[in-house]
Design brief:
single chain; alpha+beta; two-stranded antiparallel ribbon; 8 strands
C-alpha cells in the first residue's frame, strides 16, 4: 500500500527527510537517524496546503528549540510537502520521529476509517488523514493535544531547514517565507521579523 506523508516542518526539505529513509544526520541537528527498512527514495513528492495551523512548541533535543506541530482544528492553512511512500516506510518515519527504532508496521485501518488515530501520548503519535491525492491517502502525524504543548521558538538551524524546504517546494522568496514563519504561534517568543528574515535570507543563498 502506498500513502502520501504530508510534512510541514523540517521535512519540507527533501535532503533532511531522506535521513529518515536512508539514514544520516541533517545539517544543524545533533541526531543521526538509522533510516528505514526500505531505503528507496519517495516515488513522488508534491506541494500541498493543509487546512489547520502549524505552530512551534516543545524543546527538541535534536534542534535545541521549538519544532513544528500541526493543529488540524485551528483556522488557517499550513504549507506542506507530500512524499509518496510505502506504508512500511511511513511507519518507520513515524517511529524515528518518536525517537524509536524503526521496524514495526502501523495498522492504518483506524485512521483511514475515522480520519484520526491517537496511537499514544507522544509528541507525534496522533495520525491524521488530511486528504487524498491520485487515489492514495494523505497522512500526517502531530501531537494528540496541541493545546498541551508549551509554545517555543525554533532555533536558527531549524528555521534554515524549513526555509529551504518552503523555497524548494512552494517557490517562495525570503519575504514570503519570513511572513509565513513569523505568523506561526511560538515564533514570536524568540524572533522579530528582521532577525527572522536575516536567517531565511541566508538559508536561500
Amino acid at each position: 500500500m502506498q500513502v502520501w506523508y504530508a510534512s510541514y516542518g523540517s521535512n519540507l526539505a527533501r535532503d533532511r527527510f531522506l535521513c529518515y529513509l536512508q539514514g544520516g544526520r541533517p545539517p544543524g541537528a545533533t541526531r543521526t537517524y538509522p533510516g528505514a527498512r526500505d531505503t528507496t527514495a519517495p516515488a513522488d513528492d508534491r506541494s500541498l496546503t493543509l487546512p489547520g495551523e502549524m505552530f512551534f512548541a516543545w524543546e527538541s533535543p535534536t534542534w535545541g528549540g521549538g519544532i513544528a506541530f500541526y493543529d488540524a482544528t485551528s483556522p488557517g492553512t499550513t504549507l506542506a510537502r507530500a512524499y509518496l511512500l510505502s506504508d512500511q516506510q511511513f511507519a518507520d518515519v513515524a517511529a524515528q520521529e518518536m525517537h524509536r527504532q524503526p521496524g514495526q508496521d502501523l495498522d492504518l485501518a483506524t485512521v483511514l476509517a475515522r480520519s484520526r488515530h491517537d496511537l499514544g501520548p507522544g509528541r507525534y503519535e496522533s495520525l491524521h488523514l488530511v486528504g487524498e491525492l491520485e487515489g492514495h491517502p494523505v497522512l500526517t502525524f502531530t501531537t494528540p493535544d496541541p493545546t498541551g504543548l508549551q509554545r517555543n521558538p525554533p532555533t536558527p538551524p531549524y528555521v534554515t531547514m524549513i526555509a529551504r524546504g518552503l523555497a524548494d517546494t512552494h517557490g517562495l522568496g525570503a519575504d514570503e517565507i519570513t511572513a509565513y514563519l513569523a505568523a506561526r504561534p511560538g515564533a514570536e517568543l524568540g524572533w522579530d521579523e528582521a532577525s527572522l528574515r536575516d536567517v531565511v535570507s541566508s538559508a536561500l543563498r
